[in-house]
Amino acid sequence: MSGAALGIEIVVVFFLALFLLQRYGDFKKQQRMVLFGTLLAWYLCFLIVFILPLDVSTPIYSVRPVMIEHKTLILHVCELIFCPFFQNTQSVCYKPWSYIPDGIMPVFWRVVYWTSQCLTWLLLPFMQSYARSGGFSITGKIKTALIENAIYYGTYLLIFGSLLIYVAVHFQWHLSWYELQTIGITAANTWGLFLLVLLLGYGLVEIPRSYWEVSRQGHLLIKTYFKAAKLMTEKADSEENLEDVMEEVRKINESIKYNHPLRKNVDTILRKCPVEYQEKMGRNIDDCEDFDDKQNTHPTERSLSKLHKQVIYAVQRHNRTRVQWQILLEQAFHLEDVAKNETSTSRQFVHSFAPPEPVGWFRRYIYTPSVEWYWECLLKQWFYRVLSVVLSLFSMAVVWSECTFFSTRPVLSLFAVFIQLAERDYNYLYIEMACFITIFFLCTCVYSTVFRIRVFNYYYLASHHQTDAYSLQFSGMLFCRLTPPLCLNFLGLIHMDSAISHQAKEQTAYTSIMGSMRVLSFIANGFYIYYPMLIVILCIATYFSLGARCLNLLGFQQFMGDNEMTSDLIDEGKELLQRERRKRQRIEDGENRRREWRERYAQSDEIAARNRMSMSEMKETNYGETLNSNTDRRMFNTGRDSIELLQDAEPLDFNDETLNDDPLQSEPGRHTGGRYLSMSSSRSRIFDDV
To answer: Which residues form a coiled coil (predicted)?
Structure first.
C-alpha cells in the first residue's frame, strides 16, 4: 500500500483535468496540439497540488519524535479546541498507509516541475502564437510565432542575465550548475509570486462574497439584468464585426478568381466562415479571368493571412456571445421563476417554460417539484449563507497566516499550529487532510480568479466549449507559473520551508528540488517574507470594490448599486428579458396549438379510418355471402350429376338430335355426349346383341 495513494491521485487528477478541459474546450473543432498542451499543463499543476500533502507527511514519519518545546497561548487554545482530533490511541509511531518510499518523490518532483516550466516558458507561448496565427502553411505559422515570441524570450533572458550578474560580482560564490539552476528557479518563482499575491487577494474576498450574493435571490436577479444588457451590447457588436469581416471576404472572393494562385488561400478562409455566409458567397466554377492583367488589383498573401486571422476571431466571438446569451436567458428565467414561486401556497415549483429535454428518473422520483420548491425557495439561500461564513473565516485565517508566517517563536501562523499539533501525536491522516484542505482553498482562490478575469476579448475562459485556443493555452501558462510559488508559500505557512522558517527540520522533497534560496538572500529574506503582506491591502481594496470603481470611471461599465448608469442598464436588461420571454412564449404557444391540431386531426383520422374499416368489413361480409351461395349452388349441381351416374337410366342415342329440357342434360351450345351401355341396369336386354 506504500504507493497506492500516489497512484490513485495520479489517475483521479488526470480525469479532473480532462473534465475541466472538456467543459471549456472543444474536442471536435480545436487542434489536437492545443488540447494536448493545455491538458498537460493543467494536469501537472493539479498533480502538484494533490501530491504535496503526501510529501509533507513523509518527512514527519522519517524523523521520529519531534516535540514542541515552546507552547504559546495560541497553541494552548488550539489544543483545547481541537483536542479530540489529535488524540492518538497508539503510543508507538506507526507507518502511515500513504507513506512513499525514499527516492521516489525527488524524481517525481523533478520530472513534474521541469516539464511544467518547459511548457510555460517555451512550448505554450510558441503554440499560442502558432494557433492564433493566420498563416496558410506550417512554415508561415512557425515564422509568425517566432517573431511574436522574440520579445518575451528577450525579457526572460534579460531577467536571468541580471540575476546572473548579481551573483557573479560576489567573488565568494562559485557559480556551479546547481547554483545556476537555483537562480533560474528563483527568477521564475519571483515572477509567479508577484502575480500570485494579486490573484489571491482578490479571490480571498470575492469567493465568499459571491456565495453570499447567490443566497440573495433579488440581488442576484438584478445583477443578471445588468449582465443581460451588457451581453446584448457585446452580442450586437460581435454580429456587426462579423458582418464587416464577411463583407471584406466577399469582396476578396469576387476579386480573386479560380485560376489565381492565391485562390486556395481564399478557399481556406471561406471554409472558416459560417455556413449561411458560405452559401451567399457560392462561387461559379466557370468564372475565370486573366490574373496577369495589371489593371486588376489583388490582395497579397500577407493581407490574406491578416484577414484569415480576423475571420477566426470574429466567428469565435460571435459563437461565444450567442451561446452565452442563451445560457444567461435560462438563468434569468429560472431566477424569475424562483421569485414567483416564493409566494406559492401549494409549495410546488412551477416552471414558466417546459424543459427542452424529457424529464429523467431523477427529477421524476427524487427531485420532484415539491423537493425543488423547498430547495430553491428555503434551503438554498441558508446553505450558501453558511458556506459563505465558513469561507470568510478561512480567508481571515489565510490573511493572518500570510502576515505572521515568518514568526517561529512564538508560532503565530494558524496552519503551522494545526500541523504541529498533529505532528506531536503522529496523526498522519489529519496532517494530510489539513494540508489538502488548506492548499485546495488557496488554489481555489487563485485558479477561480484565473477563470474569472477577462482581458478585453483577448483572454477569456468561457464554459460550454466556447473558449478559444489562445485563452486555453494562456491559462495553462498561468497555472504553470503560479503553482510552484503557491506551493512554496503554503510550505512557508506551515513552517516546512527552512529558507523562510530558519528551523533545522527535515525538508520535503519538493523543497529540495526548489534549491536553497539563500543563494539570493535579498529574495529569500526580503521579498518572499514581506511581499505577501500586501495581501491585506488587496483584500481591503477588493472588499470596497476599488478596482470596479476605477474601471467604471474609465468607461468600462461595472455593477455599482448606487450608479445611475447601472440603473439604466438594469432597466434595459429587464426589458430585453421581457421581450425574450414574450418571444419564447409565442413560440411555445404555437407549438401547443400545432400539437392540439395534430391530436385533433389524429382523432378525426382515427374515426374516419374506423368507418372505412367497418365499411370494408361489411363489403367483405356481403362478398363472402355471395361466394357462399355460389359455392352451394355449384356443390348442389355437382351432387346431382353424381346421383345421375348411379341412377338406372336409359342409354342415350348419340345420333339423337332432339334434346329435352331435362336439367340433367348438358348446357345448350355444348355437344351432348352419350352414356355407356355398361352402366345400364336393365337385365332383359343383356343378350339382345347375341
So the answer is: 228-255
